[in-house]
Amino acid sequence: MSLLSLYPDSVSSVELNQLYLKLELHRQVEKGDVLIYSNYIASVDGRISLFNEDCGEYEVPASIANKRDWRLYQELAAQSDVLITSARYFRQLDKGKAQDLLPVGMEPAYADLLNWRKTHGLKPQPDVVVISNSLDIPLSALVKLQGRKISVLTGCAALPGRVQRLEQAGINVTVFETETVSGKALKQWLIHAAYRSAYMIAGPKVHQTLISDRVLDRLFLTTHLTLLGQNCFHTVLSDSLDSPARLILLSLYLEQNESSGQFFAQYALQQE
Ligand SMILES: NC(=O)c1ccc[n+]([C@@H]2O[C@H](COP(=O)([O-])OP(=O)(O)OC[C@H]3O[C@@H](n4cnc5c(N)ncnc54)[C@H](OP(=O)(O)O)[C@@H]3O)[C@@H](O)[C@H]2O)c1
What we know:
Elements: E1 2-7, E2 11-15, E3 35-43, E4 49-52, E5 57-59, H1 67-78, E6 82-86, H2 87-94, H3 111-119, E7 127-131, H4 139-142, E8 150-154, H5 160-168, E9 172-175, H6 183-192, E10 197-200, H7 204-212, E11 218-224, E12 233-234, E13 247-256, E14 261-269
Bound molecules: NADP nicotinamide-adenine-dinucleotide phosphate.
């Protein structure tokens, strides 16, 4: 599938495969620093998830999820030392309701990405950092990520019994002095752990944590050319910011076919 490049260059045919892989996000910053990036697919009316009354959960709308976007999601994961996710993902995984196992996917379609990691000196799979205040993380779900280093970051109100339960299962738990995990503390923790590329795949609350402290470097946003409506939904950001976060467009591609289309945009967060 080829795309139309709209920015920065105007090119009529660009291959989707390797579009994001060639960014080499794992080597964009010097040793001693970390590049933190996020990625969402949204409808034109801004929905990244809708409430599903049948299962009582918020889910990525099936009508906008698609394989081309998923390929780019996997390419972004391939370049990461570590994935940042939420406890909610593991709660859904435990109930069999998660969208998928964490990337990088083991399906034949992503074998090239696993090889790419090998040739670029990255671990077979990215490590995983879970952000959670409740520490309500089912151990049976964590077991599904066998072989990956898992760390949990939490605030000072964490229940000691829950910290202990995770530590006994071999999980590295860091309790911060603040009530919730702050973006700045998370970035420092990542740098201390010698990570250089961190891919945030959680939802609007973790995103807000990163953006309010201006520690997010890149936002990859796919906009599916669909209007969804519905009043119970998430957008890419929840809660409030002290001041608006300005974005700088780095690249924009359009995929257009008979049935629909989508924009693939990459933004940098403007530093204040
Ligand atoms: N369309 C897309 O591309 C896309 C991408 C990602 C997610 N989504 C959807 O978005 C929805 C929400 O996702 P989500 O629940 O993972 O996202 P979230 O709103 O970012 O995370 C929620 C949980 O993360 C923990 N958390 C967040 N910020 C924290 C902080 N500063 N300190 C401590 N803990 C913190 C809390 O866990 P505890 O409750 O354990 O304390 C909180 O309940 C889901 O339906 C998901 O499918 C869509």
